[in-house]
């Protein structure tokens, strides 16, 4: 292993830059060369790539997003596209690949590895924390902190006006962001795709809270569970309360990464380089029970990453 | 003047608490008593009010929202409602009133003063910065900083994905928040109700930016100018760009007040007490050209507060 | 178990309030009564305590510090002081005690339990993360984020002036804060008490960095390893560089708790109540390998909590 | 005027980058060329300078510090040094100079202009807000917000431990940062060089506050007024209170600029270019009474910028 390629793929996540920095510096520390591939598989197909050095990653540790950019590539999903990517692998002398992204990105990496034999290591980078094989994905902690900060601000106005607020958060098919931010932010109800819910029950809880003197309520809705706007409408109809809806959208992704995400990103990125150096392939690095570990990509791709039910129950108990 | 009442009314704004603290402490410093009226004119009508002391305002200087709460009151708009409020004025011995709020709140205060002769002083507290007679309203600086912070986060993801983002911000009929945040955040285009705009021109600017190598664009839309969702749709249709829309909503209002808002709030609140002590009435305090001044409420209510055209032109020049 | 007492002791840590809230709400959820004890063991001796309800913990989830206050108590270290505390236990009907604090606080709890048989459960709350039996203590993640944020700001000025900065951080005898913040903040060198260091080596690294084009350097010093001021002086003498020193001090403790600390605090607080309800005593709750677990206090008190050597090596590799 | 040079000099201030961006973009908008001079007058003497374009200032609007770096230059204080700088003026075809900095930087600019006739315009960039001819300098609002944020965090721990905290802040010979941050942060006492103070009086106020039930106190000390460590020692001796000292140091300078500083920087930078285009020289741009104005450098250099006494009195009244 003399030259490693690195790319970010899928939705951007805060901490991806800290991970790129770790991959580059760890590789250079061990005397390897490193090729940065821009715009995910799209740049891989288009040869939008080039050498990186220590200076390429100076001053990026604290910046959100990814300096390598990211994109969805339809062409890499075709045999022709992947053939072009392999040409670029040969042209740039890439002998191993670090792919920072989510489930879809790993699927692409796995197929490419099978077709062309180039070693690939996946690093879980997505705010959704929905990847099997790791307790945390890069970007999740920052996203949860972004949501908690937004809840804090909205709670100021909710308290002042004695209103009910519905906040829709990201997470695709996963309720992880909603659950963690809801527990951390003290949300009165948390609606996630993993647990059936009933708007009538939520409204009854709201009404009994009001009776007990609660001045406001915050309902967190995972985008995979329901539409915040529809839930807001239903609550308004049932309770008659002045109900406002906020859809946090893409601001959840950005911002300077949290310390937790930076450390996770550094450890995972360095481990990915170690695995390539050790001749491994088709693995994903992850953090399980506090340890940095490697799983087979086949055990990760398409596998469910269940929510923590104990945390869900706790959130319910603490929001009485 | 022995006893002053204070209330917050209309939309909450960060810094209202700093202002309440200043009113209470300034009054107590001069040996006055102070009555806090909860939930705006609603609590005034309902006698939801009571004495405040130094301890009532301990530890609130840095908290968003308003500890006195705020509400819209339909009853205070009726003669009967105001008669009830006057009964409470007599019952609680209130001899002067400080009203922290916006245009509608001042209208109510002015009518009440004319009917019952009780001295009133208005303090401009609204994130919209749309009040004549003051260069800045309490809450505006914090709201603009909230929007700029959101732009920063969205720009991380916009850059990573090379996307166009439309961000809808508050301001009711005013473009002040959009203009200030757009200039501070480096938005590519700013759509405000005070200046006619044309989506085609915006799109052409986007396209020429892309040609020149710009990787992303942020368009700021004041809620009074257009719907962010509609503008996003039109841009997508015209340019074919992957265009995302974020509606910041109520998180703009909250959060710990900025230093600027805290100082403004302290100065305005103290001045309001001074005016009541000096026998003044029907005035609004404000900051004009760096000085704390008083205007007649009649010169303020319903008057336009034009945007700074020079800043608008500057924002255009700097976003080339 | 009908009535539980809760206190915070030792240095305050952000997230203690989230933990108090969890203890109170979890207890009330299960029909228990809860007594809040103010100012740590000091209030325990002085009967500065009283019942808490749902309202006592409203709106505290996001506030730094501890609403129960904390203090060091010399009297509780005496037999007489503990006898007074036991009188208060009887007077207030306290049947079990949750102690949120660090090593010293657990020692006091353990002695008290042995002498009077009252069940006690410890919850690790200290920014230092130096407690055996848990991977994380409440307040550590927030403190590390505070330090990283300070590094970010100092790096702006360090880069602009091309200077070397020495930043002294807290941690008493532990290098955990320095190590985590140094890895997350990209510090050029990290000085901790667990690992011998040599200022000459640090200076040589600085000089070779400058040669390679580095414009600035940040050195993190754990207070238990050395004095920041002395290290700054030595570096200045050896290298001749314009070296500035910042001692972050108590601002590391405060601020709204991070999402991670809030969730950890909620889970640990709830578990402490569960243990008391299950008839347990002399335990500390903690998070090990992602799970909430209980350890015997005797296995925790006075035990070393070693740093993560792998992380230390990684920080060195990434700061080349 | 075809080609303008721009440099930053003296202590760095957050918002300098927003100002550089405005100078560059405004100049390019009007068809001018722009030369960036690195490391202040030091780079001017050493020819460390080169052309800037739109891309040079992409993505810097929200970054603290200055991309042009800054340094103190002893050589520019000599005739020989300035002769070298003039050679570089001729070599790079610079026809006008924008100097972003403080009093010392303007002095250098003024002498250079007198000796070599090259038009110079000063832009006030310093966190100290101690420049005559402008109500605000670039970086002041951000620095004050940084201090207020630190006060917030320290207050959490101060309240929890019922302690007295002394916080030393920057400002050189000016009390402006201490005064603004003290008023905004609700400090119990503010020690500034412009107003005589007496530690005994401060202690008596502390003691009477404690009697009245205050749980903690925060004393702000401007570095130009006294040493925080000495004041802390004196308070401890007089009152016997557990008194902690924090010296905020360089973290006050950095961080992403506030919206206020970004807007101020944009307006001042653009105005500086306009003045050069209009054939003006030896002026400083500033904001007076909300308007962007120009003053003669001779009326600015060495002139006192008095504090706002009304604000000082208000801070005293509100801290009863």
| N/C terminus separation of chain A | 57 Å
The pair of chains with the biggest contact is: A-C, 48 and 49 residues
Note the total helix count of chain A: 10
| CATH topology name of the largest domain in chain A | Rossmann fold
- Report the sheet-strand fraction of chain A: 15-25%
Cα gyration radius of chain A (Å): 22 Å
InterPro entries (chains A, B, C, D): ATP_PFK (IPR022953), ATP_PFK_prok-type (IPR012003), PFKA_ATP_prok (IPR012828), Phosphofructokinase_CS (IPR015912), Phosphofructokinase_dom (IPR000023), PKF_sf (IPR035966)
Keywords (chains A, B, C, D): Allosteric enzyme, ATP-binding, Cytoplasm, Glycolysis, Kinase, Magnesium, Metal-binding, Nucleotide-binding, Transferase
EC number (chains A, B, C, D): 2.7.1.11
Subcellular location (chains A, B, C, D): Cytoplasm
Describe the structure.
- The structure is a homotetramer of 320-residue chains.
- With 320 residues, chain A is an alpha/beta fold.
- Chain A has two domains: 3-139 and 257-299, Rossmann fold, CATH 3.40.50; 141-254, Phosphofructokinase domain (Rossmann fold), CATH 3.40.50.460.
- Helices cover 42% and strands 18% of the residues of chain A.
- Chain A is built from ten helices and eleven strands.
- Chain A has helices at 16-29, 40-46, 79-92, 103-116, 140-161, 176-185, 199-211, 228-239, 259-277, 309-318; strands at 3-8, 33-37, 49-52, 96-101, 120-124, 164-169, 189-191, 217-222, 243-247, 283-288, 291-296.
- Chain A has a seven-stranded mixed sheet, with helices on both faces. In chain A, strands 7-8-6-9 form a four-stranded parallel sheet, sandwiched between helices.
- In chain A, helix 1 runs parallel beside helix 9 (259-277), helix 5 crosses helix 6 (176-185) and helix 6 (176-185) runs parallel beside helix 10 (309-318).
- The longest helix of chain A is centred in the middle third of the chain and has 22 residues, at 140-161.
- In chain A, 62% of the residues are buried.
- The model of chain A has no long low-confidence stretch (mean pLDDT 95).
- Chains A and C meet through helix 1, helix 5, helix 6, helix 9 and helix 10 of A and helix 1, helix 5, helix 6, helix 9 and helix 10 of C.
